[in-house]
Amino acid sequence: MRKILALLIGSWLLATLCQAKSELFMLPYEQDKAFKSLHSSLKHAQKSIDIAIYSFTNRELAKALRDSAKRGVKIRIIFDESNKNDARSMIGYLEKYNNITTCLLKGEKSPNGNYYGIMHQKLAIIDKRLLYIGSANWSKNAFENSYETLFYDDDSYLVSKASRYYAEMFKLCRPF
Where is the PLD phosphodiesterase domain (predicted)? Predict the structure, then answer.
């Protein structure tokens, strides 16, 4: 009986450990948890951070990226083209640090040729093992006042799919 009980407990523990870690934050109600999760993941990255972000004005998140870059973490950030002349954007602040590469991307040209789309993603891939994605821009307002979502998951399929998508966008962007 003890062997069966030990086997069941061991199986349960193994299943629990093997489950994907994920969380969905609903902003602004879970703003503190969401922000702390993202900030901590950026600050404790070990090798790489790939980001595609429409609007990035949050100084605390920018400082976490700066600190990770100073530790040798390779960081690539795709910004929407509109950030080129936005004084509030963190693109200029982050571009000056070693290990941080920033670039600009605009959306596809419309079929009638009259306008372009935008790069409206809000995603981060950390150490090729953790994906953050959602509706929230990386701004104080998005986390504190807006109705947004932020989701993270370490599922290898989702991380891999997002990484392939990111690689395609990165090929198309131009340096800041």
Answer: 115-142
